[in-house]
């Protein structure tokens, strides 16, 4: 500093350095650098010692996220692989792809016990063992558009639709296949007609809250749509509800009401229509309802693409609370949803690239998070304390909803690995304990197998008469004599 001379030049990163921060606390005399090569390095200026911290991410955008709360795991779907993330420490634990060089992954889901992962890759259905990272089942099913777990992860539903052909075809048949986990045994397979219009996205099916029925949108006579209800146990057609053009416009999605199993909502661009799938009639119409529903079925959300956010009462269709006033901000992509506990409303605006979190009870904003890239997937944990974000640059972010009105969140934040200095030692101890248990299990199995083989050999020796010296071949006796010498 006194003379201005250049003392040292460090070959720090492969990519461009985007941030440089000093770290001078106590005896520390360090500098922190971060680069676009996905590494953060801590440099000790006294002896020029570098400590590298790699930031895990995918090379391409994240299409969807599936969570397992019990194991603190997040499953991400990218075009090339299925990523297994540890949500506590933010590490990419594994990349699953049956064909590492040319894999095209479209869907994936993880069971509640975190043992198995179901994925759709390159026209095949795969069932993975998450621990061993091995494929347990593989069967061809091209054009998979949806994978949904059933019966708490004991079975799964795979819906496929053929690719659009160049001919003037207005209707094609989609296939529903239900298989068991982990054997992959096919329980049933059925078909239903869908409209084949270029540019029209696939509309996912929903499962009723009791898990008994599968509700989906299909094609009716002419150009009209119909709602098909299939039995989730045997795949038989239960009901078919035609939709009149005057009642509903082009349906964008279905919502299974979580408080009553016989109610399903069909959402279009202007309103939401609640249908009774048992009586095959319309219960009521809710204007401005754009999706989202609480567990008790009382409230929904209105979030137009031109701006604004309101809480609707679904029984009367009135606006109860206003989270964001109606302001002309232009037409942008909006992602709006409740978290799993219905305590908060998540609102993403692609124009501002911010994720805002509002408290449902008083419509107060508690967070405004600036995204580093466009949001492509978002999920909430079952306890409602965290949200997991996936962006187009391949990064996964786990955010904690630190609500000042909830004192227990302070204890939760204090127990996170990022706040605990001893978390590395605890993790290593836990891994050592797990490895010891695995080794003990293997030793126990090998001992049982060895004992069973010894018993079989003993039984075989009882039935075989010992050979006398005269019956013993000459070569064997010579070999015995050589061994004695």
Report what the structure shows.
There is one protein chain. With 485 residues, this protein is mostly beta strands. The protein is 12% helix and 43% strand.
Q: Pairing-aware structural class of the strands and helices?
A: mainly beta
Measure the end-to-end span.
85 Å
Number of helices: 3
The helical percent reads: 10-25%
User: Rg, please?
Assistant: 30 Å
Whole-number average pLDDT? 84
Question: Beta fraction of the residues?
Answer: 35-45%
Low-pLDDT segments: 466-475
Assembly type of the chains comes to single chain
Give the total of beta strands.
35
Globally, the shape reads globular
With strands numbered from the N-terminus, the spatial order across the biggest sheet is 1-2-3-4
Main beta sheet strand tally, sense and closure: 4 strands, antiparallel
Protein name: NWD2 C-terminal beta-propeller domain-containing protein
Region (Disordered): 447-485
Domain NWD2 C-terminal beta-propeller: 52-401
Biased composition (Acidic residues): 457-485
Describe this protein with a few key phrases:
485 residues; mainly beta; 35 strands; 12% helix; globular; WD40_rpt; WD40/YVTN_repeat-like_dom_sf; NWD2 C-terminal beta-propeller domain-containing protein; NACHT-WD_repeat
List the helices and strands and how they pair.
Blueprint: E1 17-23, E2 30-35, E3 39-44, E4 49-54, E5 64-68, E6 73-77, E7 82-86, E8 91-96, E9 105-110, E10 116-121, E11 124-129, E12 134-140, E13 144-150, E14 155-160, E15 171-180, E16 186-195, E17 206-207, E18 213-219, E19 225-231, E20 237-242, E21 253-256, E22 263-267, E23 271-276, E24 281-287, E25 291-293, E26 299-302, E27 309-313, E28 318-324, E29 334-338, E30 344-349, E31 354-359, E32 365-370, E33 375-380, E34 386-391, E35 396-400, H1 408-414, H2 423-463, H3 474-484
Antiparallel strand pairs: 1-2, 2-3, 3-4, 5-6, 6-7, 7-8, 9-10, 10-11, 11-12, 13-14, 14-15, 15-16, 17-18, 18-19, 19-20, 21-22, 22-23, 23-24, 25-26, 26-27, 27-28, 29-30, 30-31, 31-32, 33-34, 34-35
């Amino acid at each position: 500093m006194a003379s201005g001379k250049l003392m040292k030049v460090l070959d720090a990163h492969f990519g461009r350095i985007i941030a440089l921060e000093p770290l001078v606390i106590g005896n520390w005399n360090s500098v922190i650098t971060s680069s676009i090569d996905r590494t953060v390095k801590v440099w000790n200026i006294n002896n020029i010692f570098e400590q590298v911290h790699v930031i895990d991410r995918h090379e391409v955008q994240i299409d969807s996220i599936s969570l397992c709360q019990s194991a603190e795991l997040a499953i991400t779907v990218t075009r090339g692989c299925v990523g297994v993330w540890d949500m506590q420490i933010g590490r990419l634990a594994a990349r699953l792809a049956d064909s590492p060089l040319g894999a095209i992954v479209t869907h994936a889901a993880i069971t509640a016990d975190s043992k198995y992962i179901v994925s759709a890759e390159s026209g095949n259905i795969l069932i993975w063992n998450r621990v061993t990272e091995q494929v347990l089942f593989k069967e061809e099913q091209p054009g998979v558009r949806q994978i949904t777990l059933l019966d708490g992860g004991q079975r799964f539903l795979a819906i496929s639709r053929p690719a659009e052909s160049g001919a003037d075809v207005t209707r094609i048949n989609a296939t529903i296949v239900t298989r068991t986990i982990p054997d992959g045994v096919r329980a049933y397979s059925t078909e239903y007609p869908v409209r084949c219009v270029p540019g029209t996205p696939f509309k996912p099916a929903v499962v009723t809250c009791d898990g008994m029925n599968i509700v989906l949108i299909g094609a009716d006579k002419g150009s009209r749509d119909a709602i098909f209800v299939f039995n989730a146990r045997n795949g038989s057609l239960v009901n078919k509800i035609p939709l009149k053009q005057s009642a509903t416009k082009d349906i964008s999605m279905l919502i299974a009401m979580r408080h009553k199993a016989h109610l399903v909502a069909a959402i279009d661009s202007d309103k939401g229509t609640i249908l009774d799938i048992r009586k095959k009639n319309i219960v009521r119409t809710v204007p401005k309802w754009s999706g989202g529903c609480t567990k008790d079925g009382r409230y929904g959300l209105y979030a137009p693409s031109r701006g604004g956010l309101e809480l609707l009462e679904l029984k009367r269709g009135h606006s109860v609370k206003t989270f964001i006033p109606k302001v002309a901000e232009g037409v942008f992509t909006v992602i709006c949803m409740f978290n799993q506990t219905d305590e908060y409303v998540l609102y993403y605006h692609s124009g501002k690239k911010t994720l805002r979190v509002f408290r449902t009870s008083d419509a107060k904003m508690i967070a405004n998070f600036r995204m580093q890239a466009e949001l492509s997937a978002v999920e909430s944990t079952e306890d409602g304390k965290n949200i997991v974000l996936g962006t187009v640059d391949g990064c996964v972010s786990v955010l904690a909803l630190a609500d000042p009105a909830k004192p227990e969140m302070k204890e939760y934040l204090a127990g996170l690995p990022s706040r605990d200095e001893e978390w590395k030692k605890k993790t290593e101890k836990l891994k050592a304990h797990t490895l010891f248990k695995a080794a003990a299990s293997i030793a126990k199995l090998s001992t049982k197998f060895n004992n069973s083989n010894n018993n079989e050999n003993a039984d075989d020796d009882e039935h075989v008469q010992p050979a006398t010296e005269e019956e013993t071949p000459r070569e064997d006796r010579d070999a015995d004599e050589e061994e004695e010498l």
